[in-house]
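User: Teach me something about this protein's shape.
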Amino acid sequence: MWEFSLNFKSENAEMSRYVYNILSNYVKSLNGVVTSNEENGNISILIAVKEEDKEKLKLILTNSIIEIICTKFKADFLNKSLILPELDKASIFAFKKALLNFDKETDKFIIRKNLVLDNTLYLESFYYFKLRSLHDKWEELVNLSNENKEYLISRDSFIDLLKFLVDNLDICEDEISVVKENGGYRIFSEECEYTNKLISEDSMVSSVIDLSPQKINLYFSETSNAINLLEKIFEERITINQNSLQNIKKFKLN
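Assistant: First, the predicted structure itself:
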């Protein structure tokens, strides 16, 4: 059997649950064992699989660790380090989401290059001591923004910068649809619903940025600061569809 222990600080319990949920069904499908326990301020996910399944599990572990660092750790870094002028919520969410996803493939490459899965990994120690080049990269991005925060006071300048960031994100979805429903919004990607709950107008813009689609169908005609922001940063990618919801064939609306 190959055994592996992935360890988190107790303060990162949400991250540990995220990884545990990903690993649980997969490890069981390999007839392996996965457990989690908390002791002395640490949460440990303990895994055991057959030796011949080791490389399969390492791939899942690697992808999960990369995703956590590129999203959770980077989001925390941005929230602590980024200094922005006074902006509306939709603009703040959108700007942070664009920075979060900017040059993400390079972030993933740096993490993958430094990640070694032997038998034990302490995630926070790996992040703080093995990923100095990643920290430097993020600091450079944040410092550039902070040094130009006065420039971002101008709405036109802010939108120009946000549009630049969004235009340089990798396309993640070919086409999505955004539907207004009961005071909130739902986003549909291909045959799937992006979220199983309504999201606010402020969160809707950042969610679209997260999906980075080639084409965006809007199934509403209302306007607001957030929707104007969405239209300005995505411009030609947006189609405003006047059809009723009953005429949408490609997307499943519940």
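Now, about its shape. Confidence is low (pLDDT under 50) at residues 246-254. The chain has nine helices and nine strands. If you'd like, I can walk through any region in more detail.
User: That's plenty for now, thanks!
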